[in-house]
Specification:
The chain is an alpha/beta fold. The chain is 44% helix and 16% strand. The chain is built from 7 helices and 7 strands; from the N terminus they run βαβαβαβαβαβααβ.
Length: 249
């Protein structure tokens, strides 16, 4: 198993992408700790992992609360001895409008919240990883400056901001043996609502790929598990493109 004896903390672990990554990590032998604000969603993912024979625990944690996040990570390390993988999948509050139509306070609040939660959760894990001289910090979304599209509002700006944060973490943590990797995505179609008005968006993601394919939640989980494992140990300070070539980070 790729992640046997590894400990992974997943913020937003009750969501679709968080759940898919949790499934993959657990299937590869990791002990998974799901954190989020909605107990029912966390338990749905946890029940699925337990039914498959995986190791999982859940905790209600507000990832905007630095004290709560630090207490949770400390408790994980106390139980397991380490935190080997951390990923924050709390969704950016997207405002899909032209920039000229978005109020400045709304724009700043959404970007600020995304950066705040990423900074809090990464700091909590990095504190332990630096002491361990090992660990993997994963990020999701990524930066694709060649693929700007109108009407995306704050979304790509937010991803770019988080990617800039990831680059700074990479520079500071590499001397401590900590790897930082972003999963660059052009959109995960099976997370979209199954309604007629979303079909065009799904098809545009497929059409943007040279292979005319789009990544699925299972693809995200599989790549995340590989990157976080020792087999992916040469991958750091970069983005891994999981968009079937639609993105050019």
């Amino acid at each position: 198993m790729l992640l046997e004896n590894k400990t992974a903390v997943i913020y937003g672990g009750g969501g679709s992408i968080g759940g898919a990554i949790a499934d993959a990590f657990a299937a590869e032998g990791a002990r998974v700790f799901l954190a989020g604000r909605t107990p029912a969603k966390l338990e749905t993912v946890a029940d699925r992992i337990r039914a498959a024979g995986g190791q999982v625990e859940t905790a209600v944690v507000d990832a905007m609360d630095a004290a709560a996040v630090n207490d949770h990570v400390d408790s994980v390390v106390e139980k397991t001895g380490s935190v080997d993988i951390s990923i924050n999948l709390i969704t950016l509050e997207g405002i899909f409008q032209p920039l000229s139509d978005i109020s400045t306070p709304d724009f700043v609040a959404a970007i600020g919240k995304a950066l705040t939660t990423q900074l809090i959760t990464t700091k909590a894990a990095a504190r332990h990883m630096a002491k361990q001289e090992s660990g993997v910090l994963l990020f999701f979304g990524g930066s694709d400056p060649s693929n700007a599209s109108p009407g995306m509002g704050n979304v790509q700006v937010g991803f770019d901001a988080v990617e800039s944060l990831r680059r700074q973490w990479a520079a500071e943590l590499a001397p401590h043996g900590v790897r930082t990797v972003t999963l660059l995505t052009g959109g995960i179609v099976d997370t979209f609502p199954d309604v007629p008005e979303m079909e065009g968006a799904k098809q545009s993601i497929i059409d943007a790929s040279p292979l005319k394919r789009a990544a699925t939640m299972a693809d995200v989980g599989a790549v995340a598990a590989f990157v976080a494992s020792e087999r992916g140990r040469s991958i750091t300070s970069t983005q891994v493109n999981i968009s079937f070539g639609a993105c050019h980070g």
